[in-house]
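so im writing up the methods section and need the Cyclic pyranopterin monophosphate synthase record in one place, dumping it here so i stop losing it
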Amino acid sequence: MTSGLTHFDESGAAVMVDVSAKDVTERVAVAEARVRMAPETLAVVKRGDAKKGDVIAIARLAGIMGAKRTADLIPLCHPLPLQSVTLDLEADDALPGLVIRATAKVTARTGVEMEALTAASVASLTVYDMLKAIDRGMTIETIRLIEKRGGRSGHWQAATPDDAG
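--- predicted struct ---
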């Protein structure tokens, strides 16, 4: 039997947190990842002529699929009935690279931060996989939570675009 919101029982064994006493509310989380690449690689993405296909479309789909599998990937994470997962991938010439923003939404007893973070992570790994033949020097950077709404802790947002708070 667990006490409070902890991943440990009285004997110190790992357990899934008991969220049954928490209210069911709408919860939204937004996460971001950045994939830095050579300007020439970004040009390939923007032209849409990567040899493995449409990088943006495939990374978007992979991120959604990843979010749906979060409980299978992250130990002790609750399986959630996601209502929506969206991914926006934007080319950023100043980076240079792609900024990936994932938004996950659920009405449940626990939040969707891990689902949003997983979606951004899987999408960024997919970008790397699709482009590694032309740019092995790409880096996946700054995977972080940008915002969360709902639940007992209410609303949280990173103070600035570069502040994970």
